[in-house]
Amino acid sequence: MWGFILFGGQKAPAGTVDLTKNSRVFLFLVDGAIKRYAHYEGNKYPDKLVELIPKYLSGDNQAIQLMGLFYQRDPEVGYRLSLANPNPGEMNIIITSKGIQYQLPPGGGG
User: In whole angstroms, what is the distance from residue 64 CA to residue 84 CA?
Assistant: First the structure.
């Protein structure tokens, strides 16, 4: 049933996503973990992303991947989460508790 709803009648993609090669997918995965943390921990955000392990993220190699992210608590928007070093020429995605912001690369990105 869920495959039909999510993928329009097509089978769900086979296999898993390699998060070491897809940092933007990992970014949204961590954002979901931050939101679950806030929900279950009294509407507060973690001081550091490692607080999400192991309860909200698996601990295997995700602790190392967390170092590739920029995270800070922010009194205005709750938190800011983005890639620490986006690929050259790529727009950076900044996720906050209020939504998503986009930051053009230096030079406007084309």
Answer: 13
Structural domain tally of the chain? 1
Q: Tell me, what amino acid is at 51?
A: E
Measured CA distances, 2 to 10, 33, 47, 63, 105 (Å)? 10, 22, 35, 30, 37
Backbone φ, ψ for residue 17 (5° rounding): -85, 135
Is 48 domain-assigned? Answer: yes
Which carries the bigger pLDDT value, residue 109 or residue 3? 109
The residue range of the domain holding 35 is 18-103
Any idea what the Cα angle at residue 104 is, between residues 31 and 78, rounded to 5°? Answer: 30
Residue 10 lies in a domain: no
Sole residue written with tokens 């986009």? 102
Q: At residue 76, does pLDDT exceed 60?
A: yes
pTM, two decimals, is 0.76
Answer yes or no: are the C-beta atoms of 46 and 34 closer than 8 Å.
yes
What order of strands is seen across the sheet that includes strand 78-83? 69-74, 78-83, 92-96, 99-103
- In this structure, is residue 41 part of a structural domain? yes
